[in-house]
Amino acid sequence: MVPTRIPFPVVDEVARHCLQEEEPETVHIEVHLPGQLDPGRLRKAFTEALHRHPRILMREAPGRWYRRRYEWELTAEPDAEVVSFPAPGPNALRDARTRALVEAPPLSVSPPVRLEVVGPHLDGAGSQGTVLLLTMNHTALDGPACLRVLATAAELYGGRDNAPAAAPVRTPEPPQGPPDTLSNWSRPARVAPGAPEPSAGNGLLVTELSLPHRPKGSPYTVNDQLMVSTALTIAHWNREHGARPRPLRITMPVDDRPRDTTMPIGNGTRLVEVPFAPGELDHPDLPDLLRRTAIRTRALKSLPRPQLGHGAALLTAPVTPVAWRAALTRGLRRAAAPWTSTTLLSNIGRIPYPLDFGEEAGRAHAVWFSAPARMPRGLTVTTASTAGRLHLALRWSRSLLGHGDGAHLRDLFEHYLHTTEVSA
User: Fold this and answer.
1) In a domain, 173, yes or no
2) 54, 125, 202, 378: most buried by Cβ count inside 10 Å?
3) CB atoms inside a 10 Å sphere around CB 74
4) What is the pTM of this model?
5) Nearest 5°: phi and psi at 287?
6) Are 151 and 209 within one domain?
7) Alpha helix locations (H) across 103-216?
8) Are both 104 and 221 inside the same structural domain?
């Protein structure tokens, strides 16, 4: 039987053109459970979850250089064992995180995902729990899609309902003026270099914070508070490092997919860029900045737009061999590097699934995501909320920052997040 083949969508093709071994394009999801999991039952549940979402069972199909498209080849079964259980130890979680940053699951093996089960692991309260560390190749998949598959595995393993919770009902927003427009043609600020590390790849720091308070009826959301906190953090960092003030542009993924079992699996977010003028971030009027940020983000979310913009759709049109388009894409990416956004803030929001693995393993009490942080951005901020807490991951290129820089950026972010809360 000939396997079904699917042409690479625009996002997948652009990512495939620009792969770099020294900074792999991986997404990591880290789920902390209070109890223990049975290896055999988990393998069975996760494999069945893959079959429930067959679009994840794919590998890159081989082809000649003059082909017009890359293609995904769907497979009936995984090509290799996806779930592994590394030896427990004090450094087991640290080592698994490192692998998530430096070793991308190969595109030639179906599915381009791996799940490492680290346990028993001592959590902050001293209890022996388990950490599920899911790594995916971002050329093929994004975090929300793989979280959907993991939620299905949790339901199959624990026998409990893991359907997504209903989206929160938003208070009707009062009428506001049109968004103030800022030019996207000027070169945005770069994150100022810190103390880079000699090794290649990405560094990672995860932390747990209190969810920021937002008064009922506020014209802004928690996402807007996170956006303002990110902008103020980078502006502060750049001032400390003597960088010339420039406009900031923060890329924000927007995901309109349903969260139930009909959710399309793949790379399903579209990217918008939220601008900030230098004067807005120097001694800001925070209530006003939050209000204006809310107007901008709502306007950007409502605009119909291809995932990577109209230019990417033209660039990936299959009118020339894919190898020629790859060379052109890489050249354009290098040329456009000075105009790349300053950073990326990916706010997953409230985790919609209980991620309940049953009586012995329990329900997730912490979930972290991290997005790739390749240069020229060199820094990404990813947030999610679970069990009433905010889970923040900072990920950076080691050619730009070191671990001490990451810790300082975390402290600045926590400070400014608290500031947006107090200003309310």
Assistant:
1) no
2) 202
3) 16
4) 0.93
5) -55, -40
6) no
7) 143-158
8) no
Reduce the DSSP state of residue 423 to 3 states and report it.
helix
Q: What would you measure as the largest C-alpha separation in the chain, in angstroms?
A: 65
Q: Are strands 270-276 and 83-84 parallel, antiparallel or unpaired?
A: unpaired
Find the angle CA(129)-CA(132)-CA(135) to the nearest 5 degrees: 160
Residues, the chain, total? 424
Residue 167 within any structural domain of the chain: no
Of 124, 158, 192, the one marking the end of a domain is 158
For residue 65, being part of any structural domain is answered with: yes
272 contacts 251 by C-beta, under 8 angstroms:
yes
Tell me, yes or no, whether 174 lies in a domain: no
Pull the structure tokens for residue 4.
């079904």
SS3 category, 209: strand
Contact (Cβ atoms closer than 8 angstroms) between residue 407 and residue 203: no
Which residue has tokens 């009118």? 319
Q: What is the DSSP string of 23-73?
A: S--EEEEEEEESS---HHHHHHHHHHHHHHSGGGSEEEPP--TT-S--EEE
CATH assignment at residue 221: 3.30.559.30
Per-residue model confidence as pLDDT tens digits over 374-416: 999 999 999 999 999 999 999 999 999 999 999 999 999 999 9
> From the centroid of its chain, how far is CA 7?
24
* Rounded Cα distance, 181 and 297, in Å: 12
pLDDT tens, 275-297?
999 999 998 999 999 999 999 99
Burial bucket for residue 386 (CB in 10 Å: 0-12, 13-18, 19+) = buried
Residue range of the domain that includes 408: 202-347+375-423
- Name the nearest CA neighbour of 269 among 253, 246, 252, 290: 253
The span from the first CA to the last CA of the chain, in angstroms, equals 62
Q: How many other CB atoms sit within 10 Å of the CB of residue 316?
A: 24
The count of domains in the chain is 2
CATH code for the domain of 52:
3.30.559.10
Output the DSSP codes for 221-274. -HHHHHHHHHHHHHHHHHHHTTPPP--EEEEEEE----SSTTPPPS---EEEEE
